[in-house]
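Teaching note: in complex prediction, the entire set of molecules is handled at once rather than each chain in isolation. The prompt given to students was simply: 'Predict the structure of this complex.' The entities are:
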Amino acid sequence: MDGSVDPRRGRLLIMGGAAGPALLVRFVELAGSAAARIVVIATASESPETAEASYVDRFSALGAGSVEALRLTSRSQANAPTVEPVLRAATGVFFTGGDQERITSVIGGTATDSLLQTLVAAEGLVLAGTSAGAAMMSGTMITGGDGTGVTAQCVTTGPGLEFLPGVLIDQHFAQRGRLNRLLSAVARYPHELGVGIDEDTAILTDGNCFEVLGSGAVTVVDAGTAIDIRVPRTGPIALAGACIHVLPAGYTFHLTGRRPVIGTPAAERDEAA
Amino acid sequence: MDGSVDPRRGRLLIMGGAAGPALLVRFVELAGSAAARIVVIATASESPETAEASYVDRFSALGAGSVEALRLTSRSQANAPTVEPVLRAATGVFFTGGDQERITSVIGGTATDSLLQTLVAAEGLVLAGTSAGAAMMSGTMITGGDGTGVTAQCVTTGPGLEFLPGVLIDQHFAQRGRLNRLLSAVARYPHELGVGIDEDTAILTDGNCFEVLGSGAVTVVDAGTAIDIRVPRTGPIALAGACIHVLPAGYTFHLTGRRPVIGTPAAERDEAA
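The expected output is the structure of the full assembly:
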């Protein structure tokens, strides 16, 4: 399907941090509401008990049929055979915030990772994540940096878990003024589409298109159109002819076509469908 | 002349604040070095004595033939007949930082304003300004705002003195993380080209092209290419399909063509000329 998010495909709900009730409700609904079986994974968090308890309470209060935490703080846990039945029974999996590198180092390449990839691609599992749980979905993941200006030093990156390949996600975007580091990242890797997600804002995507949800905006930086890029070891980067889109709720972006879908607002499309 | 700054035309040297010696030397050279007659106008400053003394000392130390301050803190001073001989004798005029609205309210529409416009356009006067002295050169001037995200509320604007029409200049750009407010301003006024100048960085322009000088970068945001813009009273702005250029020293931008000049680096063009 071109121009809107296909509800029949596996979906990713990627939140920029500090998600309010409207976004959390949307996740519960996508996972099946009263029929939802939600699994919370707090691997990114320094205090997984606290993060697990908080999201189990919130999703339960928002009407999810069942919610449980899956504690994965070591690679042996992420490779344990006990994980598979839990994930296969789930209709939605939620990754909390914290440190995205804990997610990639504990889960990357394990049985949990492979199974999640399969369930999202083929079985219609809804995979959601906020903050670090959003960053790790990228093909290339921002791991740090909040420097001044657009320079090679102002951002560090590493491979993400690639639930959404070809995309480089940043979060807490407007709140932490991260456009400079996103510009720096796409200047270095212009094949990656930079997607900066504000707090209490999310993208819902089937891998082909994404729709913007929530109270903020999603900023897309496309260095693919750039006519000149120079990334010196020190000093300012040159990036001439990049494209930028600031998209609030209701806007849809075509990922493979690298263009916003302008025309019928999403609400009207939904009614017509 | 297409693609480079014409040295025979009147020139503007517009600095993003915190200008180091290299940029100040460039101004002194453009004004004629030992033959330079520089006038410092500290109208923007809350303490004009201090700002005047500081720049008079610096330009003198950098080899300017003569440097004097012109105190303009009221409209009657800016309309006084004593101003004309001072400005007519000058080869360079320098506006200090402070509050850009003091410049527009004290000088806007006065004999000083008219004379400066004439001298820059027809007589080859070099007009320089830093920070507030840069902002006031715009067609539309940013007067305030440093909010979160790209919203109508996060920036306030007013008319500048229009030495460089069609352009909306912001300063201290990377240092104060001002890309959001520049995006907001051009979303509201897409005919204005947004030009964000870092500290210790400047553009030198003949009104047709500008060249980037200094240690930082100049960020150009062009909303003219946008295919969809929505500016709600509250909440995030939509701006789809804008163009962004991050240009360090040596890059040239064609203002009327709204495109960077990519190809022969400025240094080689200078040698060939």
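Point out the following to students. Chain B touches chain A at residues 148-150, 174-175, 177, 179-180, 183, 187, 198, 215-217, 219, 221, 227-228, 230, 235-248, 251, 259-260, 262 (CB under 8 Å). Chain B has a mean pLDDT of 93.
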